[in-house]
C-alpha cells in the first residue's frame, strides 16, 4: 500500500510532540522548503526519516502504517513487539524499490536480527550470494532470516536452518537494508 508523505510527517510530529514543522525540519536536518516540497510532491527522503526514527526510537509500525497508536500523553518512545510474525509488503512513494517490512520473529536464525523490525528489498535470483543474510519467504506469510549456505543448480540451502529452497518456485528473497531493535513491552 503506498504511503502518504503528509500523513507520515504528521505522525512524526505527533510522536515527537512537535508543534511547528520547522522543529521537525531541524531534527531531519532539512530546510522548511524541502519539507514543503515533500508534501507537495508526496515524497520523502526515507533515509532521513528512518534515521530520525532510529535516533528517537520511534515505532515504525505507527510511523508508516498508523498501527500501535500511542495513547494520549504517552512517552514518545512507543515500541512494541508484535506477537505474531508479520510480513507487510509496501511501496515507498516516488520510488521503484520493492521493499517489505518484517516484524520481530522467532524465525530468525541470526542473533544480530532477533527482536528487530527489518526492512528488505526484493532481489532477483541472479543477485543472491552465499554468506549474506537475507529474508527468505518460505510461504506467502512465513519467512526466515538466514544466510545462504550453498547453491545448487535449482535450489539453495539456508546455512543455519538447513532448509532447502527451490529456485524454480520463484521464492521471494529480500536483501536486508536495515533493521531496528524494538523494546519488549513490560508485562
What does this molecule look like?
The structure is a single chain. The chain is an alpha+beta fold and 187 residues long. The protein has 2 domains: 5-65; 87-181, Umud Fragment, subunit A. It has helices spanning 5-15, 21-28, 32-41, 46-56, 60-65; strands at residues 87-91, 98-102, 116-122, 133-137, 143-151, 155-158, 164-166, 173-181. Strands 1-2-3-8-4-5-6-7 form an 8-stranded antiparallel beta sheet, with no helix packed on it. A hairpin with a 6-residue loop joins strand 1 and strand 2. The chain starts with a helix and ends in a 6-residue tail after the last strand. Residues 72-86 have low confidence and may be disordered.
What topology emerges from the helices and strands here?
Blueprint: H1 5-15, H2 21-28, H3 32-41, H4 46-56, H5 60-65, E1 87-91, E2 98-102, E3 116-122, E4 133-137, E5 143-151, E6 155-158, E7 164-166, E8 173-181
Antiparallel strand pairs: 1-2, 2-3, 3-8, 4-5, 4-8, 5-6, 6-7
Amino acid at each position: 500500500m503506498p504511503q502518504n508523505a503528509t500523513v507520515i510527517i504528521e505522525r512524526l510530529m505527533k510522536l515527537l510532540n512537535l508543534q511547528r514543522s520547522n522543529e521537525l525540519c531541524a531534527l531531519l536536518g532539512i530546510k522548511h522548503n524541502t519539507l514543503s516540497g515533500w508534501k507537495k510532491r508526496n515524497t520523502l527522503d526515507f533515509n532521513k526519516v528512518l534515521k530520525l526514527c532510529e535516533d528517537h526510537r520511534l515505532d515504525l509500525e505507527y510511523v508508516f502504517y498508523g498501527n500501535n497508536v500511542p495513547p494520549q500523553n504517552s512517552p514518545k518512545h512507543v515500541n512494541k513487539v508484535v506477537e505474531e510474525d508479520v510480513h507487510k509488503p509496501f511501496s515507498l512513494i516516488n520510488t521503484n524499490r520493492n521493499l517489505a517490512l518484517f516484524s520481530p520473529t522467532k524465525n530468525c536464525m541470526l542473533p544480530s536480527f532477533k527482536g528487530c523490525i527489518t526492512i528488505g528489498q526484493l532481489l532477483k535470483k541472479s543477485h543472491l550470494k552465499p554468506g549474506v543474510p537475507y529474508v527468505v519467504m518460505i510461504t506467502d506469510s512465513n519467512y526466515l532470516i538466514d544466510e545462504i549456505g550453498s547453491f545448487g543448480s535449482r535450489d539453495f540451502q539456508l546455512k543455519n536452518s538447513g532448509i532447502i529452497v527451490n529456485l524454480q518456485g520463484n521464492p521471494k528473497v529480500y536483501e536486508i537494508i536495515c533493521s531496528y531493535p524494538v523494546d519488549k513491552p513490560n508485562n
